Amino acid sequence: MAKHGENIYKRKDGRWEARVIKGYTENGKALYAYIYGRTYREAKEKIFNSLTYTIENVVSAKTTTAPNFESVLVLWLDRKRIGIKESSYVKYFNLMNNHIKPYLGKYPISSIDSAVLNSFIAEKLKINGLSEKTMKDIMTVIKSVLRFAKEEGLITEIDFKINLPREKQKDMRVLTKDEQTLLEKYLCSEIDENKLGVLVCLYTGLRVGEICALKWSDISLDENTLTVSRTMQRIQTLNTTYDTKTKVFVTDPKSDCSARVIPLPDFLIKKLKMFRPAYENAYLLTGKPERYIEPRTYQNRFKSYITGSGIKHANFHCCRHTFATRCVEVGFEIKSLSEILGHANVNITLNRYVHPSFDLKRSNMNKLACFY
Known about the structure:
By secondary structure, the chain is an alpha+beta fold. The protein has 15 helices and nine strands. The protein has helices at about 40-50, 55-60, 70-80, 85-105, 115-125, 130-150, 175-190, 195-200, 210-215, 265-275, 295-310, 320-330, 335-340, 345-355, 360-365; strands at about 1-5, 10, 15-25, 30-35, 220, 225-230, 230-235, 245-250, 260-265. Strands 1-2-3-4 form a four-stranded antiparallel sheet. A three-stranded antiparallel sheet has the order 5-6-9. Strands 7-8 form a two-stranded antiparallel sheet. The longest helix has 20 residues, at about 130-150. The termini are far apart.
């Protein structure tokens, strides 16, 4: 069966067969070389160790007919896969196959210019109704592919004079102090591991994937700290050997900055001590090492807590924004807050996660009275 997106297949005789582009015919059709291995890993390693897996073959073919955009796109994604997370690869794979290849795939790589790209953008926005965010992600891929083509000598210039609409900032839901009080009372009334997890997020700003992957070994009840070193995701399975269309897996945090140590307040430590399990490698949300709760399930449970507490609709991510807002309201130093949230710089914290309330604005305005 094929490893979709990689041109690596398992043969009936048990061997793995890898297919790589070695050149093009005069009409632009790709020519392939075939590599074999006893395992998938061996076949993939042979691709990168083989002289046939080089862009020079494509460049030499360019003297007759330039390769089409699809060929370079596939080659770019194969190269890209080495250094990116599986979730990122799935995202690029779907953008490529669902949006880019159907429209731009047959164009010669040398003919991709501003006119072609602007026409593509207009069609996707108006006819297909894509959001500005999705369109921005698509264009990021296209630009990366064109830069790759230039670096490898397939094109000499890149024309990026495109007209992308400005992405609209969504108003993020932040719980008011009264709403947070109602929610916390509901969580603490008959508290269990699941409700405890929401309480932890309200006072640490953890993402849903981070709390789902959190284990008791990540929490020090003596030093009052919590270490974020993993995240949990459900992603699409491109490998047809899987029985399901999606899978849950635990991986490194979202970015290097997302790996962090968070000091915990004393009242939260007292709550945590109530649920200390027998095994340190147990998940926080279940108290068991062999059973976890995936993000999608936990988000649904959070919705039931919102309904049960009698406050208006809010998604799980509002816990993170609420935490950041409360920190600003009590005078948190912004650099410390940025590091606790796992952001690369304070601008992300200020622009996306700080939502001062009207009462805070009024309080700050009244501080001006000290001059009179």
